[in-house]
Amino acid sequence: MKKALRRFLPKHEAIRENRWLKPFSSTLLHPRLWYLNRHSAAGAVAVGLFCGLIPGPLQMLGAAILCVVLRVNLPLSLIITLYTNPLTIVPLYLIAFGLGGWILGDVRTAFIAPPEMVGMDLAGWAGGLIQWMAGLGKPLALGLVLLAAGLSLSGYLAVRAAWRVWLIRQWRRRALSRNQLPPTS
């Protein structure tokens, strides 16, 4: 698992030599931002899932800042934020709106249909999406925070559990291979 992910991670030299990232190289080259273990992977998934629901193009910036503060795997977190895209953002925001309305008990806020993307460019649709979110108000804001926290916690626990299962299988496989070796004389 780790070997497969390492193929996609940029090398430290590439970051150190990038002219745009050079001012941040001391922060971005911290070893814990690039090392992959069960703690950094679970934290990165949690950060990515939480920041994925940040509106607009600020998702990756928010994830990068949280990764630096929490010292979790940066590339994995940035990749995880991509679970929200033009196809998934509207259903996720509908769930958040419903969750926020349920918590607030606010039935007065009527649902407004999301903007149609037909005949619009991406920038026009993004502007329409922001206006749509603003019209939904408090239920959406509360629902987004609760949904992000719930997804984040679920992702963290799922990665920790999956990593634990993988480790136990590896330990058992090694023990089995040691026991099947012929005795040496």
Labels describing this entry:
mainly alpha; 8 helices; 185 residues
Description of the molecule:
The protein has helices at 2-6, 12-17, 25-28, 38-51, 59-70, 74-80, 89-104, 122-179. The chain is globular. It has one domain (2-179). 66% of the residues lie in helices and 0% in strands. It has 8 helices and no strands. The longest helix has 58 residues, at 122-179. With 185 residues, it is mostly helical. Helix 4 (38-51) runs antiparallel to helix 5 and helix 4 (38-51) packs parallel to helix 6 (74-80).
List the helices and strands and how they pair.
Layout: H1 2-6, H2 12-17, H3 25-28, H4 38-51, H5 59-70, H6 74-80, H7 89-104, H8 122-179
Overall mean confidence score, pLDDT? 81
The CA-CA distance between the termini, in Å, is 37 Å
Percent range of helical residues: 55-70%
Rg for CA atoms:
21 Å
* Overall outline: globular
Note the beta-strand portion.
under 5%
SSE topology string: HHHHHHHH
Give the strand tally. 0
Number of domains: 1
Specify the structural class: mainly alpha
Low-confidence stretches: none
Main β-sheet description: none
The number of helical runs is: 8
